[in-house]
Amino acid sequence: MALFKWDDSLTFHIGNIDRQHQQLIQTITKLEKAMRKGESRAVMSEIFNELNVFLTEHFQTEENLFDSIPYPDAANHKEKHRDFIRKVDRFMQEFEEEKIGLAVDVMNFMCDWVVNHIKSVDRGYADIIARRQTEG
Angle of helix 40-53 relative to helix 15-36, nearest 10 degrees? Predict the structure, then answer.
């Protein structure tokens, strides 16, 4: 049973954003499967590559969107993105240092990001876009 499956609570009806969020869910699923098989260390480089692509592409997409709406919480939201980047950088350093239990920490972080960032913080700009679309 997967930790996360794509469902309506994650859908914003914003093409690129939804696709990028789906990619993050796929990364979580990949790590989860590897952990169940006891092979998490073997996939961590791939997980970090996927996280780096996610944070580079997705954060740029979101931040460009913030600038176009306008989004009143943009500065705070962008800082949360910087926090994510710093955390992934720390995880990569810990991977190089062969930290025990790193996969669990990365999994917890990604799951927390889905629940506490995508489902709540990101909802702020998605709601603004939805209102603008209905106002025409």
Answer: 170
